[in-house]
Amino acid sequence: PRRVGILISGRGSNMRALVENAISYEVALVVSNKPRAPGLEWARAHGLPTWSQDSKGAEKEAYDRVVSAVLDEQSVGTIALAGFMRILSPWFVEEWRGRIVNIHPSLLPKYRGLDTHARAIDAGDKIAGCSVHIVTDELDAGEVLGQTEVPIEPGETPASLEQRVLLAEHALYPRLLNEFVCR
Ligand code: GAR
C-alpha cells in the first residue's frame, strides 16, 4: 500500500505537497489525463515516473483499464487523486476498492461536485474547508478521513477563499495519506 500513484489533471499543487511530504509512502508514479497539465512538468523535473494520455473522447472504462494496468506495472498499492477532474468508472472504483483517496475543497458532506467555494459563500456559511475521503462509486461521498476548517471572512471571494483552503489542503493531504497507507 505504500507505493502511491497520484492522478492529476492540472496545476498539481496537492501532488507537489504529497511528493514533498512523503514519509510512510513513496510516490511511484504520477498520471495525468491531460498531457499538458503543468503538474506533469514539475513531476518530470523532479525525476518522478509519469504517464499521460488525453482522456477526451476515450471510452470511459477502456481508458480506465489502461490507467489501471499502468498503475499495476509500477506496483502501485494506493491511489491519491489530486485535482483529478474526471469521474472514475464503476469498474475502476471496484477494482481499486478502498485503495483510492481524494482531496475535495469543501467540508463534506457539504458541497459535493464543483464550485464549492462560490456555493459556500452564496449560502452565507461562516466556515469552509477541505476534506480527504475514500473514493466510492458515489461522487465525493466515501468515508471522510479528515478535514480542516477555514473561516470565511467578510468580503470573501471564491478566489480568495480558494487560496486559503488550498494552503489547508497542502497540510492536510500528506498528513492523512501518511496515516492511511499504514492502516
Ligand atoms: C484542489 O483545490 C482540489 O481540492 C480540487 O481541485 C484543486 C486542484 O488543485 N479538487 C476537486 O475539486 C475535485 N473534484 P491542484 O491541482 O493545485 O492540486
From TrEMBL:
N(1)-(5-phospho-beta-D-ribosyl)glycinamide binds at residues 12-14. One of its GO terms (molecular function) is phosphoribosylglycinamide formyltransferase activity. Pfam families: Formyl_trans_N. This is Phosphoribosylglycinamide formyltransferase. Pathway: Purine metabolism; IMP biosynthesis via de novo pathway; N(2)-formyl-N(1)-(5-phospho-D-ribosyl)glycinamide from N(1)-(5-phospho-D-ribosyl)glycinamide (10-formyl THF route): step 1/1. The active site is at 104 (proton donor). The keyword Transferase applies. It catalyses: N(1)-(5-phospho-beta-D-ribosyl)glycinamide + (6R)-10-formyltetrahydrofolate = N(2)-formyl-N(1)-(5-phospho-beta-D-ribosyl)glycinamide + (6S)-5,6,7,8-tetrahydrofolate + H(+). Gene3D superfamilies: Formyl transferase, N-terminal domain. The lineage of its organism: Bacteria, Pseudomonadati, Pseudomonadota, Alphaproteobacteria, Sphingomonadales.
